[in-house]
Amino acid sequence: MYEADEDARQAARVLEMRRLYQIISLCVSIILGACTSLLQTQSARTREPYHTSVLTGEAWVIELLTGHPKCI
Length: 72
Known about the structure:
By secondary structure, the protein is an all-alpha fold. The protein has helices at about 1-45, 55-65. The longest helix is centred in the first third of the chain and has 44 residues, at about 1-45. It is rod-shaped. The protein starts with a helix and ends in a 6-residue tail after the last helix.
């Protein structure tokens, strides 16, 4: 009888731990989703045009090669 009670307690602990892991996983997923959404929103707000030259063709290529290193 003692052994059956111990088995039942052990099974209850396993189910409790499993439920706890599910809740933790859900919370982590929600937090990661919220952070991802915030980062995407923030990066969308701070976007700036990269290549803004009015030049075309050879003049544009020369400007790229001799201009600011971050713009190439």
